[in-house]
Each structure stands twice: as C-alpha cells, then as structure tokens.
Amino acid sequence: MKSRMFLFISLSLVFFLAWSSIGWAQAPREETEKTAQHLATLLNVGRLIVQRNQALINDPRIGNKGFTPEVFEHEVVDEFIRQTTIDLKHLSSHLPSLAKELLPVLLQSSKEVVADAQLVINQRGIGYKNFIPATFGSQAARKFSNRSYVKIKQTALNPRNLKNMPDAYEENLLKRLATKLPVDASFTEWIDNETTLRSVTPIYYSQDCLVCHGNPKGILDISGYPREGAKEGESCCAISIQIPVNKR
Amino acid sequence: MALYNRSSILNSMIVGRSIISVRSITQRLRHLLKEYGSQGIVPFLIGLGLFLQGCGLVFDAVELVQPLARDEMSAICSRGQLRVGISVEPFRPFVFPAVFTDEGVRVTGLDVELIREVADALTTYCGGQKPIVPTLHLTRFRDLFIEMNEGHLDLFVSSIGGNVPGARPVGLWYSIPYFHNGGIGAIIQKPEVAERVRAQFQKQAGNPDTLAAIQEGLSGLTVAAQKGRTSYLYAEANLKNIRLLICDSLPAAVETKDPRIDVILSKHSILDYVTKHVWPDWHLLTRNDGTPLILTQEYFSIVTVEENGRLQWFLNNLLYRLEESGRLEQMRRRWLEEDYAPTRRAATEGLPFEVSKVPEHYNQGHCRLATGR
After folding, report:
1. What integer is the mean pLDDT of B216-244?
2. Which of A3, A47, B63, B320 is the most exposed place for a label (fewest CB within 10 A)?
3. Range with the lowest mean pLDDT among A131-145, B157-171, B178-192, B313-327?
4. ipTM of the complex as predicted
5. DSSP assignment of A167-210
C-alpha cells in the first residue's frame, strides 16, 4: 500500500513538473509572438499616419507644416489604441514584459525619424519630398533594430530599395502570399531549434499606394522608379520581424 | 617674404625656444612703449616696423628649419573630414532641395557629385588608410562666405560664379572652372516681354549688341534677382532703367505676386532646368533665332580662403585632371542633359549633411524693391 502511495505521489510530481515546465516554456513563446505582432502593428500605424498626412507634407505653399514628432506621436498613440486597445502612454501590466520593453523603443525610433525629417518636411516651395510611408518605415525599422536585439525590416519580392531584399525565408513566404487572398494576420514560426521567432506581416496595396505603384506599369513615378502596375488589395510587401529568445 | 604671415608667427610660437624669445620680445615692446610714449608715437612705430621686419625673418627661418604648424591639407587628412559648405537655397541641377530617402535626409546634384570627387581624391592624397568623409554644412547662400571666413569650412561649392565683377569677396580664392557655360539668363511669363527685347535686336540689324538690347528692352519692367548672386550684380551694374526686385531665393521670385515680376535673372543653366522640370509656366528669354539669350558669360568655381595655398593647388590640379579625362564633361551631361529623377539619385548617391547648421524651418524668403537706385 505504502509503495503504491509512493508511486502515485512520484508520478504526480513528475507530471506536475513536466506540465509546469511546458507551461513555463509556452508562456514566453506566446509573449514573444504577441510582442512581434504589436511591433508590426506599431510600425504599420506609423506608416499609416505618414500616409494620412501626405497631402500636408507635400504642400509646397506651406513652410512650417506643424507635423512635429509630438503631433506624429499623438496620432500614432490614438490609432494604436483604436487598433489594439493598448495605450502606448500607459502600458498595461497585462502586456508581455517584452512588449513593454520594445514598444516604447519603436515609438521613440519612429519619432526620431520624423524629427530628422523636419528640415525636409518644412521646406516651402517644394512639393514631393520623398517622405512617404516606405522611407519612413525603412528608417524607423533601422533605428529600432540598431538599438535592440530584435530585427525589424520592410521587405518585398522586388523592393525599390535593394537593402530591403528578402532573405530566403521571407522570399518563400512572400511568394505564397502573392497567390493568396488578403489576410489580416501575421505568419509566425519558430526556427533554429525553437530559438528564434520569425514573424511576417503582409501589407496590401491601398488606393493611395497606387499613385506610385499602380498603372501604367513601367512608367516612372514622381520619385523616378518604374510603376509596378499593382492593383488595390494585391500583396505589396511585408514587415518582417526576428526575435531571438536567448539574447535578452 | 611673408612678413605678417599668420602661419609663420604661429610656427615660431610653437617652437619651444621661440616661445621664450617671443615673450622677451613682448616685454621689450612694453618697455619701449612706456619709454617712448611721452616722446611721440612716430619714432616708436618706425622702430616697431624695423623690429617686426627682422622678426618676420626669424619666423620664416624657424619655419624653414622646423615646419611644425600643420597646413590645411594635413589638417583635413588628420581630421578625416572635408568640411564643405552648400547653399540651402536650391540651385537645381547643381544642388537639389534636400529630400528624405531610405538612408535619411540627403542632398544631391552636380555640385554634390563634384564634392564626392574631391573627397575621393583627398582620400588618395591622405594615403588611402581611411576615407576622407565630406561633411556638408547646408547654410544660406549669403552665410557661406561668413562661415568660410570664420574657418568653419574648408571650401564651398554652390554654382558660384568666379568671373563676374564684384562677385569675389576679399580673402576668398576661386578655383579654375568646373562649369564653363554658366552665363546669366532670363525667364519670363508674358510673351510681350520677349517681343520687346526681340524688337531691340531687330533694330540692330546684323550688328548685335546684347547689352543695349536688354537695357532698352527691359526698360521700365520689374526685374527680380537673388541678393548677392551674380545676376543681381549684373542688374545693379548694367540695368539702370528697371524696377529691381531683390529676392532671397529663386523660388521666392517665382512665387511673388505683388509686384508682378516681368523678368527673373539667374544663371542660365539653372533657369534652363527649372523651366523644363519645375516651373513650366516660365519660359527662357531667347534671341530672335530661338537660341537662349545669355546676358554675360560666367563660369563656376570652388571657393576656399586665400591662405589655403596647398588646397588651392590640389583643387586646380584635380579639376584640370577631371576635365582632361572627360569626367567633368560626363558629370555635366549627366546632370544637365540626361532625363532622371533627382529623388532616386539622392537615394543612391546623395550625401547627408549637418542638420544643426540649417535654419530651423527653411523659408525661401521674399522679394523687396531695391532702394537708392
């Protein structure tokens, strides 16, 4: 009887320990995946705010546009709350600690890009200044990646900026996305023996994008690049994120 | 002999022994000043002049034996940076307005490509161990000269004319030309202005006199030119019967509605570009046969200070070599004749610049009537 009791207790203990270790491992994975999703959303929100203010930024009649880093931040915070219910100014204790650490870094990096561009934005008499969602996104992602062990990158199958060329993993995913209907989700996967999270969030062409990326295909747009001949809703590009779990 | 040569005085001060001698010289000067103060300043000044002459010889001799002070070329090499001034007012296609790129804020243009060539040549000159990085200081055109004189720049480039009277401030040196066909041109909106000028040429019947035709043809009209640029100097000197409007920039002239501007004077190559690509409502003023009307010939130079003798030779030799090899011609064709998007070129070959040196909110300024003419 005693030996049975001992066996039962031992098995229970082993089961409990095994379950809890799975649980411990599961929790950081979920947190990391959620963090990647939030980071992609935040970068995309920054791009959206730039796009919303594009007419103002490109207005040659106005000198000081008032599109300051603070104004940008305010609009980003509002839009991010609308999309995720997360207030970037008062990050909730329920948020993964990794997200609490990284979201402010990305917000700060994005603000700095807007600050750096003030001279260009506030030039009077000059319309198109190339301060657009894509160039904003490239710079914000680079600034953030330089400050963090997490890498964010904008990528596309045929990027205009060759530094945004996809790696093999991204290329494979982008090719699959190109043949699928638009989805409102990120693709996440753990690679390298579950030590690195890769997350790819697709971006689809909206009507505003087609001014430069639409038809007539091959004819140069305002920035001097040949138009891609894209249509609304087609896969454009993606935000790619890599988070190694052991480098914190 | 460089009697009051700054660098030779500086050299002698650096040499240990000379510091002692300079101190004793200063003490003697004070003593002499006290002694002769009551007896008259003239004998003292004569004595001082004679004394300084000898002093210059000593300084030069010291410099010959031990040239310790670094010249401007060594300073650039040890700094690893070439400090270049560029006008914040755009002079397309020589300097385009700053744009945002994937790499950050960049400027581009023929002048910027030239700066890259100068920096590359300096890298070779300095031994090629580390690249000489051109650091651009964007500032208002009028401030380029001040920045240069205050020693904040090694050189500046901004389609600057070197051969128009009054264009060269004292103390600055202009290189041999990197752009030859930089004459002053004019743009107009109303066809009747062109007709007035052409009527003057017709009167001259086979004996053309551009200055006389322009003086008569533009008489009584409102003509704009940018303050300090060679077109302004031309108008001030040659066009007495016009209403001259002084503008802070070319865009300011184009934007001004009151008073209505009849003619804008500026560099022909700039006007040729902007009428094709930026302001299609404005047209080049042409001769009766349709060729562009050039008011006077002008060439563009790189500018540095008069003391930078070694840098001057370096620049002249480099420009000569670039001309000889056809590289300058290629650059001119690339920016003035090819069809291209400046934004794309800025992304691939533009240069960053010091943001702190730029007016916080660049404003192209405005125009005002010239007074006292």
Report:
1. 95
2. A3
3. B157-171
4. 0.79
5. -HHHHHHHHHHHTS---SS-EEEEETTTTEEEEEEEEE--GGGH
Question: B141-170 burial string, b = 16+ CB within 10 Å, else e?
Answer: bebbbebbeeeebbbbbbbbbbbbeebbee
pLDDT of residue A183: 74
| Six token digits for residue B96 | 């385009």
Contact B102 A129 (CB under 8 A): no
How does residue B357 score in pLDDT terms, banded at 50, 70 and 90? low
Closest CA relative to residue A226, chosen from A166, A158, A164: A158
pLDDT mean over B178-203: 93
- pLDDT for position B17: 34
Answer whether the bond into residue B292 is a cis peptide, omega within 30°: no
B282 close to B264: Cβ distance less than 8 angstroms: yes
Check if the beta carbon of residue B182 is closer than 8 Å to that of residue B269. Answer: yes
What is the pLDDT of chain A when averaged over all its residues? Answer: 88
For chain A, say whether B354 makes contact (Cβ under 8 Å): no
Q: For residue A140, what pLDDT is reported?
A: 97
Query: B96: which DSSP letter?
Result: P
**Stretch B313-341: mean pLDDT:** 96
Give the separation between CA B130 and CA B61, rounded to whole angstroms.
34
Q: Please give the span between the terminal C-alpha atoms of chain A, in angstroms, as a whole number.
A: 49
Question: With contacts defined as CB-CB under 8 Å, which chain A residues touch B360?
Answer: 118
Q: Which residues in chain A (125-164) have CB-CB distances under 8 A to chain B?
A: 125-126, 128-132, 134-136, 138-139, 161, 163-164
User: Which two structure tokens, joined as six digits, stand for B298?
Assistant: 């002008």
Burial class (CB in 10 A: 0-12, 13-18, 19+), B128: exposed
Give the closest residue to B6 by CA, choosing from B73, B56, B65. B56
What percentage of chain B has pLDDT greater than the value 90?
Answer: 60
A222 in B contact zone (CB under 8 Å): yes
Q: Measured between alpha carbons, how far apart are the two ends of chain B, in Å?
A: 44
- At residue B172, the pLDDT reads 93
Mean pLDDT score, B46-59: 53
DSSP labels, B238-265:
H-TTSEEEEESSHHHHHH--SSPPSEEE
**pLDDT at residue number A211:** 85
A contacts of B226 (beta carbons < 8 Å)? none
pTM for this structure? Answer: 0.77
Are residues B253 and B247 in contact, defined by beta-carbon separation less than 8 angstroms? yes
**A166 preceded by a cis bond (ω within 30 of 0):** no
Q: Is the pLDDT of residue B15 over 50?
A: no
pLDDT reported for residue B19: 33
Of the candidates B66, B65, B62, the one whose C-alpha atom is nearest the C-alpha of residue B18 is B62
Q: Which of A244, A243, A241 is nearest to A170 (CA)?
A: A241
Q: Please enumerate in sequence order all residues whose Cβ is within 8 A of that of B363, keeping only pairs 6 or more positions apart, or say none.
A: A63, A124
B104 chain-A contacts, CB cut-off 8 A? 116, 139
Of A123, A132, A224, the CB nearest to B344: A224
User: How far is it, in rounded angstroms, from Cα B268 to Cα A230?
Assistant: 41
Give the lowest-confidence range in A176-180, B230-234, B284-288, B296-300: A176-180
Task: Quote the minimal CA–CA distance from A63 to chain B in Å.
Answer: 6
Structure tokens at B364: 């192209």
